[in-house]
Each structure stands twice: as C-alpha cells, then as structure tokens.
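S.,

Sequence below, as promised.
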Amino acid sequence: MVVKGLGQLDQDYNGSEIRVGIIHARWNKMIIDALVNGAVERLKSMGVREENIVVETVPGSFELPWAAKRFIDAQKVAGEPLDVVIPIGVLIKGSTMHFEYISESTTHALMNLQEKVGIPVIFGLLTCLTEEQALARAGLDAGESMHNHGEDWGAAAVEMAVKFGPNAF
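The prediction came back faster than expected:
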C-alpha cells in the first residue's frame, strides 16, 4: 500500500501575503525540476504571488542547510524577509556509504535550522533507494503509484507560514 500526500488540509490557507524561498540542489536535475515546479504550482494555487516566490540553487543536497541559512539571512538584510523556506534535494543510494552520511547529516542540519532562523523549514529532501523511487516521488514514473511530492511541500509551506510563521502571531 502506498500512502499518497500530506492528506487533506484542515482549512483553506491564503498564501497571498507570504514570501517563500525555494533553494534546490542541481544533482538529479530532471527530478529536481519536477519537484520545484510542483512546489511552485501548488504555492500559486494557494494564493502565493509569483513575485513572492524566490528560487535559488546550490550544487548538491549537502550544501542545502548552510546555503538555506545564508539565503534566509540575505533576504532579511535586503528588507524582503522570507516567511518559510523549502530546501529541495534528491539523494539516491549508490554502492557506497555516501548516501547514508549525506542523508543523515543533511536531514539533521535542516531540522536544526528551523530554530536558528525562526521560520519554518519544509523538509524537501527525497532519500530514495532507487532512481525509480525518486522518479515516482517526483510524479515522473510511467505508472500511477505516486504523485509529485513538491506539491505537498508547497502546501505545507503555506500552511506552516500562515499558522506558525513570523507574521502569524
């Protein structure tokens, strides 16, 4: 059995007043592009204005936590602070321990980043055992076993920014 998506939202969230940062790795470009596009389309469908979606890139997933912190700080210094950030990366297991080290360290760093930056950090890191799993989670598989997880990350970003972001209280 495959559980699909984050489930039904508990209410309609209006993202028209939030700024969203998306920072993505460039490894596994085809999969990354689909995930980023899915997130952007979902953000826009929930009212986020296109000019309030800021996209930046980094070489790989390991660079996401540090670059996300710098990205958030730079937006604040520029007088255009973000309400939420979505780091997006794809890690696919190979024949060495590299996958385990990068997956674990990047996951922990992204989780801990939230407390440092004071805004929600959506976990947009796919950690897949095969390329087929990654393609399915990006909505690119030939079958209909999965959907684009980027859409879920976009919806989660709006919900978290509206309910718990810096302008929520």
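The chain has five helices and four strands.

Coffee later?
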